Amino acid sequence: MRTLVLTGPENDDQRAVSRALKLAFSERGDSCLVVGALALLGQHIPLSQTRAMELTALPTPRGFAFLSAGSAFLREHKRKSLVYEINARYAKHLSVLLREGEFDAVLCLHRYPAESISFLRKTITFSARCCYLACDYACVPFLEETHLNHYFTAHASLTSVCEQRGVPVKKIVPTGVPVPADWVAAEEKADARALLNLPQSAPCYLVPFAEDPVAAVAALLAQMNGDEGRVCVLAPDDVPQKSALVARFASDVRVIILSPEDTLSLYLCACDVIVSTPSGAMSTFAGVHGKPLIHLPAVGPMQAQTAQFFSSRGMSLSGKDYDESATLALSLAKDEARKEAMRDFQQKESIPNAAQRVVQFLHDGRL
What we know:
Layout (H helix, E strand, L loop, with lengths): L1 E5 L5 H17 L2 E5 L11 H11 L12 H6 L6 H20 L3 E4 L2 H10 L8 E5 L16 E4 L5 H7 L6 E3 L14 H8 L7 E4 L5 H11 L6 E5 L4 H11 L5 E4 L5 H7 L2 E4 L3 H10 L3 E3 L5 H12 L4 E2 L3 H13 L1 H14 L4 H11 L3
Helix pairs in contact: 1-15, 2-4, 7-10, 8-13, 11-14
């Protein structure tokens, strides 16, 4: 099987889920091509178009839908907007990829490519099955206006919500949110700590994803007593943020700053509590593997719904700001009974092996 995975904005969830799918397809012996939204604008694009894609087209509900009105727009001799131009450019390059790529399936990880695929199915002929795959525990607005073969959701409880919005129930498949296989370590917790030179008895907090990692780490350190605890934080790709993180905490023995080359799986195994933005992929990992989870303040409605999903089921705790999140993390690290209760709720509600479930469904037509 040859599969095309179309991502939306460059963020932690899109990267994690697309990598999880690529690993799962590879394990099955299939090929998988992952293409981002900016890549489909082509080479040497103006900065103005890049910003229009990142700041307007991708975040806007129905960001692609108005392209179908293009002929009327041109007949009225109106000036095309910048967003219209990037939508047309995206559609042009995607149509070439679909015609020449000979894909068996197309997976859309964001509403924008789902809208564009729905538009192109009216204008060109290609045989690939086209599916939407949710990266959050939410039903995306206007998803019902897309016309795809299947809609892979994060949890069975979201089926009724999607159906109420107008998505045909026979097309909804609750697969879970894919998590990269390389996030899972074979080592036991004590062995992972020994390999990472982390103290065995001190509490260890992992901050893998945060909108403001400096603020998240500073809030934890401000409430820690002494230097026995450890805060491990994944450095962001953004250069200014990474520089600020290193400048602030490089000399603090309590802080371990991870680079992309470090083995994230060992830190996920070694930590006592994960402190993260409400990422669908990271939240799923915590649920499947029974890791106590604190959600930092949500960024946007999709993350807010993910945080609500987990906290309402006892699978996480959510802070309204970084200070409250830090307070919850330190308290949870010391409360064995509360951690065990959270693990029980996580095990009851989580869907493991989501990436393999998606691959299996595309091959066999069933889970």
